[in-house]
Amino acid sequence: MWNHITKKIIIADFKQGILELDPISRELQTIVSRYQGERLEGPNDLVISTDGVIYFTDQEMTGLRDPTARVFRLYPDGCLQLIISNGPSPNGLVLSRDEKALFVAMTRDNAVWYVPLLSDGSVQRIGRFSGYYGIGGPDGMAQDAEGNVLVAHSTLGTVFVHATNGELVMKIKSPRGVHTTNLTWGGPLMNVLYIVESETATILKVDWHCDGWLMNLEKE
Fold it and tell me: PANTHER family given for it (predicted)?
């Protein structure tokens, strides 16, 4: 993901941690790979706030039997804060438009969790924003300019679209395979939704009714 402050690409690498790539020099360096002296279990995805704070999931091979995966917040000064420690396979994540909440796809819970972010840096009253069904679970996520939360389900071949209150307002069905895994925005007006369907190695696209929301591009 592009960091609008450092002008570098931030990468969640399952084995090496959170990395930073300079697109000009092509230098790759590790930002963080340990927490309290122990290696991270397996970073999966990340999102960057407008002030450069990186939120990322540390997934490992966890599930409902062993809900011990984590979600971290990494500040620009290098301070690493644990905000969730009981996640059943946290995966994709997005920030709300006002950055007062974090939405986290908990794949093995087959749900998206809603994580309020308080002004003092604490988190309280974490709950389920939306729930699903099937063998897999939610994977990649995105958000549009209206605040709708888009969730790719890894085995249903579906992108679920939720209003800000969690209500399901639309389903986008894949015309190819059923493993819809990742979402992002593109196009000249940033109003094209791109969907990764990993079963057939296909990139699908949908012309959206409004702009996509990539807050890390807002200061460009």
Answer: BLR2277 PROTEIN, LIPOPROTEIN-RELATED
